[in-house]
Amino acid sequence: MSMAKLNHKDAPADPRGTGERLLAWYDRHHRSLPWRMPPARIAAGDRPDPYRVWLSEIMLQQTTVQAVKPYFETFTSRWPSVRALAGAPGDDIMKAWAGLGYYSRARNLKKCAEAVVERFGGEFPSDFGLLKSLPGIGDYTAAAISAIAYNRPVAVVDGNVERVATRLRTIATPLPAAKPQIRAFVQSILPAARPGDFAQATMDLGATICTPKRPACALCPVNGDCLAFLGDDPERFPFKAPKAEKPKRLGAAFVAQRRDGAILLRKRPETGLLGSMSEPPTSGWTARQDGEPGLDAAPFPADWQPAGVVGHVFTHFELRLSVYRARVDRAAPEGCWWSTAADIHSEALPTVMKKAIEAAIPGATLKPTPNRQQRRN
Ligand code: SF4
Predict the structure, then answer these.
(1) Alpha helices in 313-361 (DSSP H)
(2) Residue 111 to residues 71, 168, 181, 214: CA-CA distances in angstroms?
(3) CA dihedral 351, 353, 354, 355 (to 10 degrees)
(4) CA angle, 364 as apex, 306 and 321 as ends, to 5°?
(5) Ligand 1 lined by 209 (C-beta under 6 Å)
(6) How far apart (Å, rounded) are the C-alpha atoms in residues 46 and 43?
(7) Measured in angstroms, how far is the CA atom of residue 290 from the centroid of ligand 1?
(8) Considering the chain, what is the average pLDDT of its residues?
(9) pLDDT in tens, 6-15
(10) CB 263 within 8 A of CB 255
(11) What is the DSSP string of 148-213?
């Protein structure tokens, strides 16, 4: 593809028409999602519940729709309003979130719910700036709540929308530098009357038709407006800056099991990675380390036996945890507790810690996490 073609300057003949065509397609083909209000109800004057919009958008960050569905159902049935969530014990929220990853989101969930109750009387604000002042709400989530829940004319740009926009407009600037250009383009085709539906229509197009590989351009409602489709190979978009290799960190996890099968757990510090989540005792691993940690990092003397190595990829680094196991018959050390076979699946165990326990105790009584195979990270 030549740069002349990549830098194509011809706007679609009718940029507003692109948005309208997308909406007409969305009216017929929108995905049915538990947190979504269908366009017919919006047209009839109903408005989505900002609480459900906010909760779903927080859950969907870095996570697939399929993975989020059961968590969303659990949260909204246990805590049907932002007031109910604000009043819930933090540990219960962390337990209900366990397995969904990116745990700072769960910690901010309660802080945000409390702030909405204290500062805004239990009603999410509609203003982009006020939304951004709430814990855990950044540019994207503020835009999504403002547009979807309140129908404000704000461009909502997630990964799907970035792909659609860079293809429609053949934006050859690599991401993330292309973000302002993408936002400006999306804003330029946004139909003023239906910003919320338009945001969801663009997301749906990216998720179902304008996919990263082999987009179904023949079925696309805006293929007549799409410079990438008309000009060349859409799969080349979006351009991305090369990723730096993730640093590697090393650590050890010590899985102690009592005679009755109970497993020794403790709670991680409130702040920092996986804050407030449960784990078997581990060595430090949130800082860069040299060399494989060994038995000298064990929490107490026992007949520790190597049980393999588990890996996990976090946003900013890759972790390699050497796992040790031991049969132990003693009281739980201070700050730890014995979690019985009946309790272990309701503990707030992040995926990496479940991996460590399963490496140490094959067939441990952990319920399968529904999203384990589906999470993106
Ligand atoms: Fe995406 Fe193809 Fe539609 Fe262009 S025509 S927006 S590349 S699906």
Answers:
(1) 351-360
(2) 19, 39, 33, 41
(3) 90
(4) 35
(5) yes
(6) 7
(7) 47
(8) 89
(9) 344 445 556 6
(10) yes
(11) IIT--------HHHHHHHHHHHT--SPBTTTHHHHHHHHHHH--TT-HHHHHHHHHHHHHHTS-SS
Percent helix / strand / coil, the chain, rounded to 5: 45, 10, 45
Give the closest residue to 56 by CA, choosing from 145, 159, 154.
Answer: 145
Q: How far is the CA of 66 from the centre of ligand 1 (A)?
A: 23
For residue 369, pLDDT over 60 is answered with no
Name which residue sits closest to atom 5 of ligand 1, judged by CA: 223
DSSP state of 240: B
| Mean pLDDT (whole number) for 35-57 | 96
pLDDT the model gives residue 270:
84
User: Is the CB–ligand 1 distance for residue 161 below 6 Å?
Assistant: no
Angle at 154 (CA atoms; ends 25, 210), nearest 5 degrees = 35
Q: Which two tokens stand for residue 95?
A: 């337990």
With b for 16 or more beta-carbon neighbours within 10 A and e for fewer, the 218-250 pattern comes to: eebbbbebbbbbeebebeebbeeeeeeeeeebb
Q: Is the pTM of this model over 0.85?
A: no
Q: What are phi and psi of 269, to 5 degrees?
A: -55, 155
Indicate whether residue 215 lines ligand 1 (CB < 6 A). yes
CA of 229 to the centre of ligand 1 (A): 6
Q: Whose CA is nearest to atom 1 of ligand 1?
A: 210
Whether 326 is in the pocket of ligand 1, judged by its Cβ within 6 Å, is no
Q: Which atom of ligand 1 is nearest to the CA of 209?
A: 8
Nearest alpha carbon, ligand 1 atom 4 = 226
Q: Hey, which residues are catalytic here?
A: 57
What's the average model confidence in pLDDT over 350-373?
73
Instruction: State in Å: Cα 168 to ligand 1 middle.
Output: 7
The answer for residues whose C-beta is within 8 angstroms of residue 224's C-beta and 6 or more apart is 230
Ligand 1 pocket, 201 CB below 6 A? Answer: no
Cβ proximity of 28 and 221 under 8 Å? no
